[in-house]
Amino acid sequence: MEKAISLLSHYQEILVEAGCDEAGRGCLAGPVFAAAVIFPVGYCNPILNDSKKLSEQKRMELRPIIEREALAYAVASVSAEEIDKINIHKASYLAMHKALDALNIKPGYLLIDGNKFIPYQQVPHTCIVKGDGKYLSIAAASILAKTYRDEYMAGIANDFPDYDWLKNKGYPTIKHRQAVIQLGLTPHHRKTFRVSDPQLSLF
Questions:
Q1: Closest alpha carbon to 93 in 75, 129, 120, 131
Q2: Sign of dihedral through CA atoms 56, 130, 175, 161?
Q3: Which residues on neighbouring strands pair with residue 77, listed in sequence order?
């Protein structure tokens, strides 16, 4: 059972604030997803937390709550092909920018999970290391990005069952790396990502 905690509702109180986070940066396959969430001033939800600290079931339970209670939210992605063209770091920021573009309310301030960001238009921002465990809007964005990405990977997993995407969601598990080495890359793989032999870790 996840422990109830209380994350911060906002970083500043003057401007409309959106929290942003991404999912899938370290994967070998599939797009990188990002989400942006704007909550009402003073919003409170003691269950919201960093998506990595929640079970899959809890994330899926929280998603419709986030979508119902947010003033605005959006989810966007950047394909594996585009990741190979511009690199994963730029692709992650691009996905965040695309999510911000899709919001039906323009934010006046951004909270970004992590320590780096490419500025979005003229909107001021603050990067928060481990922000998905500190601020509600970033936590909500992490949940949306994660659940939408997981659904995407589940949707393509049946076409490539040997890569075990239903379980690993494209992350570099031993089984996933072994499948790449034995069977090669699929059209969904990021071709610029190096795949090492998992047996090397045994020595």
A1: 120
A2: positive
A3: 33
User: Which positions ≥6 away from 88 have C-beta within 8 Å?
Assistant: 25, 32, 190, 193
How far apart, in whole angstroms, are the C-alpha atoms of residue 49 and residue 140? Answer: 7
- Name the 3-class secondary structure at 177: helix
Report yes or no on whether pTM surpasses 0.85.
yes
Closest to 15 in 3D by CA, of 105, 107, 103: 107
- Higher-confidence residue: 5 or 161? 161
Tokens of 89: 């770091």
pLDDT in tens, 24-48: 999 999 999 999 999 999 999 999 9
Contact 190, 27 (CB under 8 A): yes
The one-letter code for the residue type at 118 is I
Average pLDDT over residues 2-26: 88
Token couple for 57:
């079931």
Q: What is the pLDDT of residues 45-65, one digit of tens each?
A: 999 988 989 999 999 999 999
How far CA 160 is from CA of 24, 25, 27, 101, 145, in Å, comes to: 18, 21, 16, 33, 23
